[in-house]
Specification:
Helix content is 81%, strand content 0%. It has helices spanning 2-5, 9-32, 36-41, 53-59, 65-97, 101-115, 118-132, 138-161, 166-174, 179-190, 192-208, 211-221, 225-235, 240-274. Helix 13 (225-235) runs antiparallel to helix 14. It is globular and about 70 Å long. It starts with a helix and ends with a helix.
Length: 276
């Protein structure tokens, strides 16, 4: 009886949550194709007629703000997630197949790394990078990304390695395969769903990161797409059309990246729960 009385609550909550996520997306999409003067007057109205002026203006800016940010974001994100995937897979494999003291200590260190917010350690990180000569460089930003996001990847891979029978590795070892060959040629290909999950999660997080690129790259040495939006707001506060266009263009690459790996991503989220 209680279930029938409250049957309307679930669709109502679902509609509210869906609207909460959809409203910001609608505002961005509607205002991208709308002249700046119409954005200020009626930001929620549909673009009638739609125009590509805002996108064209962003793509043809004299300072090439979007293009410089896009190149840096692609470079930082691609290098970071490739290195993170390789290191995370190896560390996760080690933790899953070893129960010694070293593995336990490593597990505790990884857990501590997951609990620390990036804003808390940004000051010591900048000091270390400055002393190493990596401040205001893409390499320095990649090193920070790898160090901070490694624990997440390790725990994802460790959980998946435990679902792989050890007998497969033992059979390969009997045939004469070394430890590295067993991992890269036999174990790692079986971790494709986990790799897709790590690539998507970390790719989105690193692409959307704002604080680290702003502080580590610095105002004079480079920018990313997220920092570019911040700079556009600071320099052209009245040009809302360009700001919305930058938001739209900055979201497209990561959306395409997600759609490309979506199939493997869903498998990666469900495989660990359905095995073992």
């Amino acid at each position: 009886m209680n279930h029938s009385n409250h049957g309307w609550l679930r669709p109502l909550v679902a509609t509210f949550v869906g609207a909460s996520f959809f409203l910001p997306l609608y505002l961005v999409l509607a205002n991208v194709f709308k002249p700046g003067k119409d954005i200020i007057g009626s930001p929620a109205a549909l673009p009638m007629p739609p125009t590509l002026h805002n996108i064209e203006e962003v793509l043809s800016r004299p300072d090439h703000l979007f293009w410089y940010g896009l190149v840096n974001s692609i470079q930082v994100t691609a290098i970071s997630i490739v290195v993170l995937t390789a290191l995370s897979a190896m560390c996760g494999y080690y933790l899953a197949r070893n129960n010694g003291l070293g593995a336990r200590v490593m597990l505790v260190v990884m857990l501590a790394g997951l609990m620390i917010p990036p804003a808390v350690i940004i000051q010591p990180i900048t000091e270390v990078l400055r002393s190493a000569g990596l401040m205001t460089s893409v390499v320095g930003l990649v090193v920070v990304n790898v160090g901070y996001y490694l624990p997440f990847g390790v725990f994802v891979f460790a959980g998946f390695v435990k679902t792989i029978p050890v007998e497969i590795e033992q059979a390969a070892a009997i045939d004469g395969a070394g430890r590295l060959r067993v991992f890269w040629q036999i174990v790692f290909p079986l971790l494709r769903p986990a790799s897709a999950s790590v690539l998507i999660f970390l790719g989105v997080w690193i692409w959307n990161d704002f604080l680290n690129p702003l502080i580590i790259l610095g105002p004079a040495e480079g920018t990313t797409v997220t920092v570019g939006i911040y700079r556009a707001i600071g320099e052209h506060q009245a040009d809302y059309g360009s700001v919305f266009a930058l938001m739209f263009l900055a979201s497209l690459p990561v959306l395409i990246f997600y759609l490309a790996f979506q199939k493997h991503f869903v498998k990666g989220l469900t495989a660990g729960a359905s095995k073992g």
